[in-house]
Amino acid sequence: MLNGKYSIIFKTLLVVGIASSFNAFSQLKIVQIDRQFPSKENKAARTESLPARALPFWDDFSSTQTPFPDTTTWEKNSAVWVNSGTGINPPSLNVATFDGYDAQGKPYSVNNVLANGLADQLTSGPLKLGDVPPAERAGVYISFFYQFAGNGDAPEPGDVFSLLFKNASGQWIQAWSIESSILSKPDSSVQVIWPIAGDEYFHNEFQFRFQNFGRLSGPFDTWNLDYVYVNKGRNVNDKIFPDRAISHPSSSIFNKYYSIPLKHLDGNSMGRSKLFVNNLSGILQVVSYTRTAELRSYSSGNQAISNVVIDSGLTNAFDMDPLTRIQIDTARILEIGNLNLNADSIKLTLTTLFDSDDNEEDYMPIFSPIDFRKNDSTKTSFIISNFYAYDDGVAEYGANITGAGTQLAYQFDMSTNKQDTIVGIDLFFPKFGDETNQNIQLHILGALTGNQSDYLFQKVIPVERSNRNDKTIFKRVDIPGGVVVKNTFYLGWKLTSAAEIPIGLDANNDSGEKIFVNSSGSWIQNKALKGSLMIRPIFGKPKDLTTSITESAFAKPFPNPTQQRFFLPNEAKEIQLYSVTGSTVAFEQTDGFDHKEITISHPVPGLYLVRYFLEKWRTEKVIISN
Known about the structure:
Elements: E1 12-14, E2 29-31, H1 43-46, E3 57-59, E4 81-83, E5 95-98, E6 116-123, E7 141-148, E8 160-166, E9 172-179, E10 189-195, E11 208-215, E12 223-231, E13 244-246, E14 259-261, E15 274-279, E16 285-299, E17 302-311, E18 318-320, E19 325-329, E20 345-355, E21 377-385, E22 397-400, E23 407-413, E24 420-427, E25 429-430, E26 439-445, E27 455-462, E28 465-466, E29 475-485, E30 488-495, E31 503-506, E32 515-518, E33 523-525, E34 532-533, E35 535-539, H2 551-555, E36 565-569, E37 573-579, E38 587-591, E39 595-600, E40 606-613, E41 617-624
Parallel strand pairs: 14-21, 25-28
Antiparallel strand pairs: 1-2, 2-22, 3-12, 4-5, 5-12, 6-11, 7-10, 7-12, 8-9, 8-11, 13-15, 15-19, 16-17, 16-18, 16-20, 20-21, 22-31, 23-30, 23-32, 24-29, 24-35, 26-27, 26-30, 31-34, 32-33, 36-39, 37-40, 38-39, 40-41
């Protein structure tokens, strides 16, 4: 994390293509943030050496269970970051990202934020190249895919990504390198195949190393690495593999949401997820997939587990052309009848298993013992509780608006046609730049017409940032009186100063079209930023503003006084409304989850009496104000 005085040089990717009414001081921006993962093993553990192994060598980082490379394959002193959000259309799930952060997620250089130098390194374990017969050594090659920037910060001219080999004398010799260029494409994965040529490398402690040269003061000058393969019996054209690989986590089954309130679920809440697959082989292949859901239901502290098959591989087989990347729109949805709707919350883990005969039809002995099936499955978790979330809980980047007075609104479309009450908002503000005495005006809007009446809630709050190792990175803002919403609403904030205050941005799920920015009186829809903001509405029963919560408090009308509408418990029946003179007053009634909304048709300031049955007949006073 950079100190405040260094924040002015934080490089950002300015989002272009937004309406021309945006000026240079009020653009929506993506920024690089402090990483969200715990520190690696201690230094003593990181010095352990790996035993030498025979060819072949293969790693595509898809089965790594931590943010770091597999320590049975790579040396433990690596600082590269294994993740699924920085790569764009990689050959398989996950990439290894090189930048200016060390293994603890901190800049290599803190005192000199403009320093350039050698940054991340990824070093293989020893390989027994000395065992390769001399007649076969001309066929020993290493291949890999690299990507310039991806979703990360673009390297600058002079930044270099390189490959080194260790010779028999223990010296590291640069074998290959690529320098950043303005012609480099951030969304293109480039395959390289390179000979390991020279007798000096054919010894039984041979190692290779990838490294980047760039800015040392943070997550800048990004390169992505994927699908590293070393073997004999190859040539310069050996660029295909008997492998069909999942390349991206499964998309949401809740119409873009990763989390959804349990009581909002209905038959329309479920959607078909998307699956992205690459055929890295040179043959047409018949493939299929199976999806299963593990359901962990929690009720009053107890847990119940069930498993459901959503899609069976027997019913969805199809042909996949050679060397193609396809998007699969899954055939079926999870039936709502499989869920315990009376639970307090449910954790749903979706497992997708891709069946493409990897390690069978076109698998040759020279690949043994590589298991190409490792990249044929993916797991994605969803939470069904009391909140909506577009994000998956991990921030690859940050996103912010700039310019005092600029506003942001994030659209949420409820999965129910009933109204409900927002009782809190969860936000993740990562560590970034100057963090002293910063405030924002938090708001909830019912529409974006540009009128003050759009605002259902406004409150100035201090910005509370989270450490990456906090038990929970989200900080909650309670709304004691609650805000009733229906169908579509918007969460967001207004900048009260010129400070840069990014919110967490999840790069895996794109809900960018739900973001709107207002810097000059009109709301403009975002067209360029991709990802999901880490802000979540929490639903429930509102707390009384001045007293502790009791059942009797919920039995009374609220808010009171009010201008036109108030709420009663959902169990209230035979509702009647009178003026103080005893005349019947017309009103409209709307049923919600926890309470009924009463809207007076023609409100006149004064005292009213509402009569209703709730366990007993009750009569309560309601004050209508101007």
